[in-house]
Each structure stands twice: as C-alpha cells, then as structure tokens.
C-alpha cells in the first residue's frame, strides 16, 4: 500500500481518531487528525468543550491546515500514506471546502483517495462524546448537542467521488479499521 490518503469523516465523538489509530497499528500510515491541526489554535484560548468558540478561530485553524497540507504536498515522501480525520456535516459550505482541499492534496500527490463516512446511532454518539480522553484533546463533550447534531444533520456525502460508508455503532475500532483497509485493498489493487 503506497501513496494512499484515507479521509475519515463523521460527527464529533464517532471514533475517528480511535479508528485511525487502529489503522496505524495495521498499516504504514501517518495520522493527520483534525485536532492535531485545530489544537495549535484551541490550546491558546479558553475552551471547555461545551460552549461555542469565537468564529475567528476557524480562520486561524485554516492557516495551520494550509501549512500542514503544503508540507505534505511539497516535502512528504511520494509513497507515504496518510489517514486524515475530520468532522464534516452535509450542507456546511466550509466543510465542503475542507473536503475539496483534502481531495486536491491527494490529486497533487497523485495519491489514491478514499473518503470514509463513519455513521453512528445518536444514543451511542452521546455515550461516546463524554469520554474523559476527549477533554484532554480539547474535543466537544456535550452529549445533548451530539444527539441534536446526529438527529438533525447528516455526515458529509462527497458529490464527485465514491465514498465508503461504514456504520460504527456496534463495531470495535479494530473491526472498523479492518473493513476500511479491506476496502482500500479492493479499490486500489495494483
């Protein structure tokens, strides 16, 4: 497996980071978690994981993301694999732009690109979002907000590339990782 970009997308609390770590344990990928990018900015302001963030935060996060993407495009080894994670919601213009930026990065690298939509039942999402590990990573932790988002919104659906959709409500991270890697092998056989 060489020069593959996996893009795990789903609601906050779905398990994107945990599944990504399970992928890293099974295949040679580097992780580009959305909070590794976001937290460069979020650690500099007061955030508790429950209240709203100032809107300007995302402009600053976008600058960090641009540096990370430029580095991957210009300096990373050509055969390096990456797994990205992101909260992306259908109908959000900014989310669609972030998706297109990741896809453009894959295109610029000549990488095989697989977006993976991770779905989850609202009650399971509410259970997962309160995990103490999320607080240390400055991730949202409001179960009522998680339920509301899961009931009122959909995970982003790419318009111009076939995504792999996986319901992780009852899957372990290891099982989810195995299914994702099996899909990569099936789609991108040499």
Blueprint (SSEs and pairs):
Elements lengths: L3 E6 L6 H9 L4 E4 L1 H9 L13 H20 L5 E6 L6 H17 L2 E8 L2 H8 L2 H5 L6 H10 L11 E4 L5 H15 L3
Parallel strand pairs: 1-3, 1-4, 2-3, 4-5
Would you write up a description of this structure?
This protein has about 190 residues and is α/β, with parallel strands linked by helices. The protein has one domain: Rossmann fold (3-Layer(aba) Sandwich), CATH 3.40.50.300. It has helices spanning about 15-25, 35-40, 55-75, 95-110, 120-130, 130-135, 145-150, 175-185; strands spanning about 5-10, 30, 80-85, 110-120, 165. A five-stranded parallel β-sheet has the order 2-3-1-4-5. The longest helix is centred in the middle third of the chain and has 20 residues, at about 55-75.
């Amino acid at each position: 497996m060489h020069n593959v970009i996996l893009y795990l997308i789903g609601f906050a609390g779905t398990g994107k980071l945990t599944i990504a770590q399970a992928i890293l344990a099974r295949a040679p990928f580097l992780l580009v978690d959305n909070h590794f990018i976001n937290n460069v900015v979020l650690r500099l302001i007061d955030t508790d994981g429950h209240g709203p963030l100032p809107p300007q935060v995302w402009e600053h996060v976008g600058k960090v993301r641009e540096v990370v993407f430029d580095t991957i495009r210009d300096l990373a080894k050509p055969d390096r694999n990456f797994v990205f994670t992101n909260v992306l919601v259908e109908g959000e213009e900014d989310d669609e732009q972030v998706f297109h930026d990741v896809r453009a990065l894959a295109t610029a690298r000549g990488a095989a690109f697989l977006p993976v939509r991770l779905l989850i039942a609202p009650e399971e999402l509410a259970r997962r979002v309160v995990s103490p590990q999320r607080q240390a990573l400055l991730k949202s932790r409001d179960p009522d907000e998680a339920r509301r988002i899961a009931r009122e919104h959909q995970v982003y659906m790419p318009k111009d590339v076939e995504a792999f959709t996986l319901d992780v409500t009852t899957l372990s991270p290891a099982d989810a990782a195995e299914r994702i890697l099996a899909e990569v092998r099936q789609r991108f056989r040499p």
